[in-house]
Amino acid sequence: MGRLAFVGGTGAQGLGLALRFARAGEAVVIGSRDASRADEAARRIRTAVPGAVAEGLPNLDAITCCERVVLTLPAPALPGFLDIAAGRLANKLLIDVAVPVTLHDGFFALAPVPGAPSAGELVQAVVPSARVVSAFKNVPAERLQDLDAALAGDVILCGDDAAARAEVAALVAKLPGLRAVDAGRLANARYLEAITALLLNLNRKYRARTSIAIVGLD
Ligand SMILES: NC(=O)c1ccc[n+]([C@@H]2O[C@H](COP(=O)([O-])OP(=O)(O)OC[C@H]3O[C@@H](n4cnc5c(N)ncnc54)[C@H](OP(=O)(O)O)[C@@H]3O)[C@@H](O)[C@H]2O)c1
Questions:
Q1: SS3 for 8?
Q2: Which one in 110, 125, 178, 188 has a CA-CA gap of 20 to 30 Å to 118?
Q3: 159: closest CA among 197, 199, 118, 111?
């Protein structure tokens, strides 16, 4: 399948996912604006996961060498990155993890995404040929990064390409404790993102690290 790239993979969510996928046997490439930060994050993965195949590269090099790219940038950074990277992202599997939220007076709320109803739909609009799947938006980074912690809950997937959703579901199946739930159309991404705003407010209220599980699907 080739390597799995993480744009902005030096951050909490990208590094957490990369650690988990490296432990699951995926070869990972950590992208960063800064080559030395990318190297350092890749080294952390190789140290935490003996035998891991992990390399650090500048973001644009990371996406060039991988057909599967996880976008783990802060939502406000997405439009600018997509502008410069759209050509290189064409036709790739893009896993969008971004959640556009703001925090005011101790309350998390969804932030508007310029030109689209959700971050996932923005990615698809800017790179129409890409196979975009929104995923992992409700999974907390702290738990992903703690390799001793068991993962639990559902990863809701949405995207307009059924084969791409199936590909991401197969990736989720490599992470013990997580279950992929195929939600269908990418237009669901706006609801996934809203759920994360709720989870963040719950986290503040209960000093917790919440995620979600869907009941009633059997
Ligand atoms: N944290 C969570 O629990 C969680 C859960 C679900 C979804 N998410 C989503 O996952 C994404 C990443 O979250 P995070 O907590 O890992 O974010 P983060 O740590 O704030 O940022 C991730 C990385 O993005 C790069 N970056 C930061 N600002 C940038 C800019 N203006 N332009 C280009 N690159 C920039 C940085 O890498 P370099 O400096 O190395 O380039 C940074 O390490 C976000 O969209 C978030 O909403 C997070």
A1: coil
A2: 178
A3: 118
SS3 content of the chain, % helix, strand, coil (to 5): 40, 20, 35
Distance 206 CA to ligand 1 centre (A): 24
Specify the CATH class of 4-206 in words. alpha beta
The structure tokens listed for 145 are 């990064």
Is 155 a pocket residue for ligand 1 (Cβ < 6 Å)? no
CA of 13 to the centre of ligand 1 (A): 7
Residue 142 CA, closest ligand 1 atom number:
3
**pTM (2 decimals)?**
0.98
Reported as a pLDDT band with limits 50, 70 and 90, residue 1 is confident
Instruction: Provide the total of helices (H) and of strands (E) in the chain, helices listed first.
Output: 8, 10
- Helices 119-126 and 78-89: angle between axes, nearest 10 degrees: 40
Q: Is residue 178 within a helix (H) or strand (E), and if so which, with residue range?
A: strand 178-182
Query: Separation of 115 CA from ligand 1 center, angstroms?
Result: 21
| Interatomic CA distance for residues 111 and 128, integer angstroms | 23
- How many angstroms separate the CA atoms of 37 and 57, rounded? 9
| Dihedral sign for Cα atoms in the order 14, 65, 162, 73 | positive
Mean pLDDT of the chain: 97
Model pLDDT, residue 218: 78
